[in-house]
Amino acid sequence: MQQDEIYLVDLWRIFVREWKWFVLVLVLTLACTYAFAHLAKRQWEATAWIQIAQVGQVPAGQDPKVEPLQRVTERLQLVPFQNEVLQGAGYAPTSSVAGLYRKSLKLEPMLYAGSLVKLTVRAYSRQQASELAAATVARLRLVHQGLEEAPLAAARARLAQIDAGLQAALSDQARYRQAAAPGNGNGAGGEDMANPVLASLLLANKDDEIRGLRQAKNDLVERLGPTYTYETSTVWPIYVPEGQAFPNPALTWGIGLLLGIFLGVSASVARSTARRSA
Fold first, then answer.
1. Percentage of the residues of the chain whose pLDDT score is greater than 70
2. Is residue 140 exposed (0-12), middle (13-18) or buried (19+ Cβ within 10 Å)?
3. 221-239 pLDDT, tens digit each
4. What is the pTM (predicted TM-score) of this model?
5. Chain centroid to CA 70: how far?
6. Distance between start and end Cα atoms, the chain
């Protein structure tokens, strides 16, 4: 404990004796911090929350998402995909904007939120950042539209088949109802008297068939509605803060100040040691 107190006293004496070196190094460090904060190219960060497209009517056991979450994140990291995004936004794949886009693109799968993907990307202005995030979502939507064509076509064909069957069943129902109506037989013989009974049985079966077809149609229409079937899109508007993401003023000055104090103390101790050795 006594050695520690003596060490602190010695350190204070060194600081008092070599305070000019401390101040000089601190000022130089803060000057470099000021130059970095004002000369570094500013960057803004855009954040988008992407919802993967889904087709509600798919075979049992199959994922309704047009593409698994893991495959989506892998696709977004592919260089060809990123080049298509950049070209769609009007930037050359070899430009500085493209380099920053690739380097800053980050993906965070959000499984707890229903298979969402959080996308963050940086650019040299707020407008650029927003455009690149929107272009990424638009390109992914275009890819997913191609993937969902087949299941959507199959679901619509199934709906058309159910509609055709329902129309035929309704036509048969009207014919059986007319045949089963009282007084429809001519009363000439037993064979004619049996026709209304048979028609009544057929009518009951047809009513059950129509009920099942209507239920299947309503279920399929609901599955193809916006609740269960939708395209890839952003669930919330793309967010770009007013302040720049890099260099962060508070963080830059905080690091610069701490670094200046550390280097100033180190310079004072080094100067004092050099004087004793001389």
1. 90
2. buried
3. 998 998 889 999 999 999 9
4. 0.78
5. 12
6. 31
